[in-house]
Amino acid sequence: MLLPLLSAAPPAGADAPEEGSLQGQFTRAAARTGVPESVLLAVSYLQSRWDGHGGAPSVTGGYGPMHLTDAVTALKRSAPHHSDGEEDARGDSSRPARTEAPVPSAGRLPGRLRTLERASALSGIPAEELRTRPGANIEGGAALLAAAQREAGLPASADPADWYGAVARYSGADDAATAAAYANDVFDVIRTGETRTTDSGQVVTLPAAPAVAPVTGQVAALGLRAPAAGPVECPRTVACEWIPAPYEEFGDDDYGNHDKADRPVSQSIDYIVIHDTEATWDVTLGLVQDPAYVSWQYSLRSSDGHVAQHLALKDVGWHAGNWFVNAKSVGLEHEGFLTSPDSWYTEAMYRSSARLVRYLAARYGIPLDRQHVLGHDNVPGTVTSSIRGMHTDPGPYWDWAHYFRLLGRPIVPSAGPHAGVVTIRPDYDAHRPVYTDCAAAGTACAPHGSGAVRLHTAPDEDAPLVKDVGLRPGGEDSTTGVNDTGARASTGQSFAVVERRGDWTAVWYLGQKAWFHNPRRQPTAVNGRGLVLTPREGLAEVPVYGRAYPEASAYPAGVPVQAVSPLPYRLLAGQRYVVGDRTPSEYLFAPTFDTTGHAVVRGQEDYYEIQFGHRVAFVKAADVRVSRI
Fold first, then answer.
1. 598 touches 590 (CB < 8 A)
2. Phi, psi of 350 (to 5 degrees)
3. Which of 82, 223, 467, 487 has its CA 20 to 30 A from that of 41?
4. By CB neighbour count within 10 A (0-12 exposed, 13-18 middle, 19+ buried), where does 228 fall?
5. Separation between Cα atoms, residue 94 and residue 349, nearest integer Å
6. Which DSSP letter does residue 176 get?
7. Which domains can be identified in the chain, with CATH numbers?
């Protein structure tokens, strides 16, 4: 919420801090405003990890290290996530596709999206400087914190513990639980400390202060609302409210926007799918509450990490474009835009998301690895005709390495230099491959860190990229397009090594020998061990599937048999792929609004999930031999 403007503000112009080291700019802003430097540093870390992003706005229109918001730019977006492209979010070929809905208006901008104008009024620094000069931006954020402390009737104490309420107010949250969760994260950063090299190449350090015990009762005096009551399923460390998705019948056997189920009694929950929304927060909530649209379990807000739950976890959302995955997964939509490299995600959202995923993984026994925590861009098409329409979010700019550190499962080597398995893990900030098509077709995207590597047909940067016959049946090469997943491997994905040659490593990928640049001095992968599979003896190749459906004989009367259709790829004898899990064949039959006729069909056939390309795939257990390397 916007705080009322103070009657007096610090002088403008010459009093704005001079540019210098980023660490020094925090020190000077703290001294000028009376905000403890540790509080200023920790708030900035939670918003931006001290990055400036070259003056580009975040997904919620936030600028600079302090994430001062001027969200008009964020509302110029169009084509929300599941309304763009050809993918049927439900992913059940036995029912009509469900992809489009009207885009609701975002309405009047709330105060949390307009903090830059208030920072300008308080500090006297012009808005353009707050957007583009890191030192000015830090000064503006410090002015907001100092104003919040004064308006609470509290002195500018040198003890960071006395600033809990001001930090909670800085979050912009309009409910007490989210404001408190945000402040708790800030003070966790203060207690543990951080050191990081920013996107401008500067090292910033916040020394650990483990004894700081904030005055948490200050939140009660802020007058914030309670979150919407409801049957939320969230950890206590996440601020979560209930904004339900509708279950509504339209007639003519049509209904929306999800399916009733009884998971995990009816089916196990094995996957968590990470999405970005391609829309602002208000638009996202409007869409998921539209009975004619599609659905997912949780939405996460970028500015402060707030979580809204829309479906009971026992029910099935329509989000991944693959009915087998939908029936066995939980979908998390993160406010963001794939094709805008510097429309960055906040640390607050990463942390909130990681706590939610840890909770879900513990509740359902889901392993915290990249075979079970999938991006939407890792979910396979169900059949050949659906491959080209599958979505590509959260894309190459989602920081999987940082995310898995927050999950408590950092991606680290587990074997020596001659290991038979590698797991992709470039240095996200330093690794900046060129992508195209963010703003316009054929135009290079802004340089930006990435967690993905490219795969070539030979150990040479000039060699063609490997081909994806599912995406391009005509045999055309893959491209550097930001939405082209045909020759891409992302952080956390593991592959079997074929050969190593100098600074290059070859792996099995989409039925091909594929090379990626992996120099010893700046490796883009770590070595490891794992289970791999290969066609059993006597088979020259085995089919690859996009879903693990039962054999025809398993279907009872009244349930139409679902085709077990292979994808257009070849897994050849001698090739090896890393195994994610062994899964029984299942099909959730849920074609009607009335749930009495719903059923889960289980077959005798088992499948293995494998990391086959950028997307996972399934092979029949009877077709392969598994070993450990």
1. yes
2. -55, -45
3. 223
4. middle
5. 36
6. H
7. 13-72+109-222 (1.10.530), 228-396 (3.40.80.10), 535-628 (no CATH)
Give the predicted TM-score (pTM) of the model. 0.92
What mean pLDDT, rounded, does the chain reach?
91
Query: Given this model, what pLDDT does residue 107 score?
Result: 57
Three-class secondary structure of residue 410 per DSSP? coil
Helix 37-48 vs helix 347-364: crossing angle, to nearest 10: 70
Q: Which residue has the tokens 């039925």?
A: 511
pLDDT of residue 253: 76
HSE-CB for 56 with a 13 A CA cutoff: 16
Of 301, 287, 283, 333, the C-alpha closest to 58 is: 301
Contact (Cβ atoms closer than 8 angstroms) between residue 34 and residue 156: yes
Q: How many CB atoms are closer than 10 A to CB 579?
A: 21
Phi, psi of 146 (to 5 degrees): -65, -40
**Token pair in block for residue 279:** 């829309």
What type of residue sits at position 555? Answer: Y
d(CA 580, CA 592): 33
Q: Round to whole Å and give the CA distance between 490 and 271.
A: 17
What are residue 498's phi and psi, to 5 degrees? -100, -45
Query: Which tokens belong to 70?
Result: 């001027």
Beta-bridge partner residues of 627? 532
Q: How far apart are CA 144 and CA 175, in angstroms?
A: 19
Q: Is 250 helix (H, G, I), strand (E, B) or coil?
A: strand
Please say whether the beta carbons of 461 and 503 come within 8 A. no
Check: CB of residue 115 under 8 Å from CB of residue 172. Answer: yes
Q: What is the pLDDT of residues 302-345, one digit of tens each?
A: 989 999 999 999 999 999 999 999 999 999 999 987 777 666 78
CA 496 to mean position of chain CA atoms: 26
Question: DSSP letters along 513-551, please?
Answer: EEEEE--SSS-SEEEE--EEEEEPTT-SEE--BSS-PPP
Estimate the share of the chain in helix, then strand, then coil, as percent rounded to the nearest 5: 25, 20, 50
List Cβ neighbours of 440 (8 Å cut-off, separation of 6 or more).
none
Tokens of 50: 């001290």
pLDDT at 103: 53
* CA–CA distance, 43 with 40 (Å, rounded to integer): 5
CA distance linking residue 212 with residue 234, whole number of Å? 27
Which among 501, 587, 528 is positioned nearest to 261, based on CA atoms? 587
Burial class (CB in 10 A: 0-12, 13-18, 19+), 372: buried
Segments of the chain scoring below 70 in pLDDT: 1-19, 73-80, 83-86, 98-108, 341-343
Question: Can you spell out the DSSP letters for 25-50?
Answer: HHHHHHHHH---HHHHHHHHHHHHTT
CA distances from 335 to 11, 168, 216, 626 (A): 36, 21, 28, 40
